[in-house]
């Protein structure tokens, strides 16, 4: 992954329909200069960390009691994933715990699919951490809806 921070942030966050750049979006979390203010921010920064293979960050933001032996090394050894986009479906919660439902779209040799998960987060001493998630089947866009890859084209004219 390039070190260029002047790219649109992989998490797809935008303000007033303008894509946020990595260095103003998820990078402050990755460089530890900012703590995620909400489960959704943490979720976005963790998706971007998957895209950029920042495995130490993924471990650091995963509640230690829920790691179950997961390490930065084991993450690095999992099969390569070609991530396409992150779709936040909903987020909710209180000051101490929250949930984010999302689809993380990816592509393999033959098809496109998504990890569709409702993730749980806990705030421990002011820091949001991922604990666990429940997974569901992917919900695909309809043919005439916007493509999941963020191209702005219709799904049927793009990745379908
Ligand atoms: Zn971002
Ligand atoms: Zn597409």
Automatic annotation (TrEMBL):
SUPFAM superfamilies xrefs: NTF2-like, Sec-C motif
Domain of life (superkingdom): Bacteria
Ranges for domain YchJ-like middle NTF2-like: 38-133
InterPro entries (alphabetical): NTF2-like_dom_sf, SEC_C_motif, YchJ-like_M
Protein name: YchJ-like middle NTF2-like domain-containing protein
Organism: Shewanella psychropiezotolerans
């Amino acid at each position: 992954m390039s070190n260029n921070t002047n790219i649109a942030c992989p998490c797809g966050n935008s303000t007033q329909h303008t894509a946020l750049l990595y260095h103003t979006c998820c990078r402050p979390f990755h460089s530890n200069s900012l703590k995620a203010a909400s489960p959704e921010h943490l979720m976005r920064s963790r998706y971007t960390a998957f895209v950029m293979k920042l495995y130490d960050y993924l471990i650091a933001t995963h509640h230690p009691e829920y790691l179950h032996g997961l390490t930065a090394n084991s993450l690095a050894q999992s099969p390569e994933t070609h991530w396409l986009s992150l779709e936040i479906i909903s987020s909710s919660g209180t000051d101490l715990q929250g949930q984010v439902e999302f689809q993380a779209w990816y592509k393999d040799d033959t098809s496109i699919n998504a990890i569709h998960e409702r993730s749980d987060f806990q705030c421990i001493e002011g820091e949001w951490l991922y604990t666990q998630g429940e997974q569901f089947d992917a919900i695909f866009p309809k043919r005439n809806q916007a493509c999941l890859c963020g191209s702005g084209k219709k799904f049927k004219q793009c990745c379908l």
